[in-house]
Amino acid sequence: MGSETPLFVFGDVHGHLDNLIRHMRYAGLGTSNAQWKGGDAQLWFMGDFTDRGPDGVGVIDYVMRLQKDAAAKGGRVGALFGNHDVGILTARLFPTARTGGPEGTFYSDWFAYGGVSSDLEKLQSHHIEWLQNLPALALVNNRLLMHADAMFYLNYGDTLDQVNATMRELLHSRETKHWDVLLAQAGERLRFDERKAGGVMRASQVLAYFGGRQIIHGHTPIHKLNGEPLQRITRAYTYCEGRAVDVDGGIYEGGAGFVYEAPELAPEPVMDNSAKIVQQNPRG
Ligand SMILES: [Mn+2]
Question: What letters, b where the CB count within 10 A reaches 16 and e where it falls short, cover 141-178?
């Protein structure tokens, strides 16, 4: 045991409350009625609570209750917002406002991207307030937590606090143009893929601006990043020379999902692989 309290992370739930509860119980973090069992641990959700699955508002309710109970018991449950959480807010707050999106209004765009009508009916003001106050980014145990493997966060500030403040203001505003721009950008993904030119550099850049030694994100189902069959995705995927961890198990497509426990990072900086190979093979 090190000095840090344990950090657990859960990826994009997309309305699959049964799956979430199963994993909370299996990991010993929560009961089926959202009682916290994680002690002083931290559990973070990477956003995208709603859409594409049967009970998005049920997921929000569960996470809100778990959060409250954890706080009362010395633990912590945190959550980021994802693009689908922004989407359902626009569908509720400005349904008929015009967008540059595929269907031309916030409601129809949200619906086209997997919005579920019953979620919109169940979404109450306390859910809306909760979503509007979620951060975009968090720094925990030297990990940078972000929903998307994307660069657009940098359009909202040079520091983590600045990005969170700018986006928080946006989520409380009625400037539909700004919401539209955010949603248009939020489809960005796969930017830390080391097989693409600049992938490692972009991850390093994001870490240099926002802090942390490693990025943990959701948003892009792992099988779409590493090409493995969805049925084999049962754990987090560390890539980008150790700079990034994808925790999106593709639950909405039928993936098993998982709780990721982030191990304590070694004190030295992440080593680049080429240096290791040179050390292991002296003189070739
Ligand atoms: Mn997403």
Answer: bebbbbbbbbebbeebbeebeebbebbbebbeeeeeee
Structure-derived torsion over alpha carbons of residues 164, 47, 151, 4, reported in degrees to the nearest 10:
70
Question: What separation in Å is there between the alpha carbon of 71 and the centre of ligand 1?
Answer: 27
Tokens describing residue 96: 């008929």
Model pTM score: 0.93
Domain 9-280 has CATH 3.60.10.10: no
Cα of 273 to ligand 1 centre, how many Å? 30
Residue ranges of domains in the chain = 9-280
Determine the distance separating the centroid of ligand 1 and the alpha carbon of 79, expressed in angstroms: 13
pLDDT score, position 25: 98
Distances in Å between the Cα of 150 and the Cα atoms of 73, 131, 210 are 35, 20, 13
User: Which band of pLDDT confidence, cut at 50, 70 and 90, is reported for residue 268?
Assistant: low
Dist. CA 86 → ligand 1 center (Å): 10
How far, in Å, is the centroid of ligand 1 from the Cα of 210?
A: 20
Distance 14 CA to ligand 1 centre (A): 9
